[in-house]
Amino acid sequence: MEMQIKTTRTTNSKLKDIDFSTIPLGRTFTDHMFICEYEDGKWNNPRIEPLELIPTHPAAMALHYGQAIFEGMKATVGNNNTPLLFRPEENAKRFNHSAARMGMPAVPEKLFVEAVKQIVGIEQAWIPPQEGSALYLRPFMYADEPFIGMRAATSYKFIVICSPAGPFFTKKIRLYAETEYIRAADGGTGEAKAAGNYAAAILPTEKAKAKGYDQVLWLDANEHKYVQEVGTMNIFFKVAGKFITPSTNGSILKGITRDSVITLLKDKGFEVEERPITIDEVIAYSKEGKLEEAFGTGTAVAIAMVEAIGYEDEVITLPETNPVSIDVKNTLDEIKVQKRDDIHGWIIPVDVEEKVG
Ligand SMILES: Cc1ncc(COP(=O)(O)O)c(C=O)c1O
């Protein structure tokens, strides 16, 4: 499928006003967006144009029934200043997995990847120069058909916007194992990156923060026993020399960082068990001195070390040093900027000359 993406460039770039050393997270957006509309059973008029407000009908179905999904990815800069993407086809696949669960149309994988490549090609000067920073990309789709009634919408928008993200100075995180609220139940939407999943997580997260924690550690919906994942991350535990991460069972988001980290840990000779793990087990390992490291994985921070986990009346504290977590984080960070061989073929260079014009 030959993809014609029409480009209209801004005549008034905001780039000159940006100080990359002080960009507030998630509040600064680049000059352009990719946008196309779904109607009459197909995606029409893919284009890149100056980012602007989008008129929305008050009856747009996403506002009422929540058909809205998104992805999160990052563009970095590699050798010779080439913009790079990390496993973008995995985001395209997950996007369509989310779309299918929410009764939304698929975006052809080629269109998704091409949209992301071309917007990165145009906005490459917005990739912050400091080590550890990146251009955060937010592809999303929502139902914009004006209609009051419960059924799948017939019209949608698929958009990609970009936001420069400065270096993340990742502090260790404190997790609160939640026993009252749940994130996802069997048969629900936990495996989809659906906007509503995040809406439902806001109150429990605020409550966890008020108790002195950074994020919720979600437990399963049936028994409040099995560890699922963290706010916007998957979770790994290092127990007596090997790693354990909850198996993805339909109610956990299949993180692309999770998958990459499993591969890297195995490359480094570690055994990685993907299996159900209870919070009681984690507490017991900690008390026995076997819980050596714990970290969350996700696109935003790559790897965030866990400092402590609160569960009911107990708080367990992780050992201060986490050498393997740091090593795997460095490996992943270095692959993303071509400072280390990309033996798994995860890095996709954006061929700017060829794609942008
Ligand atoms: C709920 C949830 N779990 C896990 C992740 C980690 O996924 P990834 O590594 O693909 O960013 C994310 C972030 O996308 C998330 O929102």
From TrEMBL:
List the cofactors. pyridoxal 5'-phosphate
One GO-annotated biological process of the protein: isoleucine biosynthetic process
Tell me which UniProt keywords the record has, alphabetically. Answer: Amino-acid biosynthesis, Aminotransferase, Branched-chain amino acid biosynthesis, Pyridoxal phosphate, Transferase
Q: GO molecular function of the protein, one example?
A: L-leucine-2-oxoglutarate transaminase activity
Lineage: superkingdom: Bacteria
Task: Name the reaction it catalyses.
Answer: L-valine + 2-oxoglutarate = 3-methyl-2-oxobutanoate + L-glutamate; L-isoleucine + 2-oxoglutarate = (S)-3-methyl-2-oxopentanoate + L-glutamate; L-leucine + 2-oxoglutarate = 4-methyl-2-oxopentanoate + L-glutamate
Residues modified as N6-(pyridoxal phosphate)lysine are K193
Q: What is its EC number?
A: 2.6.1.42
Q: Which PROSITE patterns match?
A: AA_TRANSFER_CLASS_4
- Note whether Chaperone occurs among the keywords: no
The entry's family comment says:
Belongs to the class-IV pyridoxal-phosphate-dependent aminotransferase family.
- What is this protein called in UniProt? Branched-chain-amino-acid aminotransferase
